[in-house]
Amino acid sequence: GPAPGPGQAALGRGGLEFLQHTVGSLLSSYGWYILLAAVAIYLLVQKISQSLAARPSSQPGAADAAVEPDMVVRRQEALAAARLRMQEELNAQAERYKEKQRQLEEEKRRQKIAMWESMQEGKSYKGNLKLNQQEVESGASTSSAVPKSKPNKKPLRGGG
User: Does residue 147 have a pLDDT over 90?
Assistant: First the structure.
């Protein structure tokens, strides 16, 4: 091929000067940012390499757990037993709730029967219910309740 002429050598020298000028201006403008980015990349690479070096040492532990099937079976049996206990407890709570609901329904039924009987006898069933509720409350609370006296209020209309 033809040898490089004097024009091409000048062009190469001008390109080199242009490259030096561009790199110089970039470093002068963004030098600290480039330096910080390089340090961050270095630290990130170090951290990743440490985590990769630590990983194979933990994998044999996982392999050992897979090799120990009796441990896995025991753990599953313990989980099944715990689930069974929780289900039995839930069933017992549901049974207690149903029993409480039955008792409440029975009490409502008795009150309706008593109300019906008092109505058949011609008595006021509302007064009878109030008496029954007062008996229940007085039986439940042993503290003596003093009835409050009504304050003397002036009537809104002064009628004689």
Answer: no
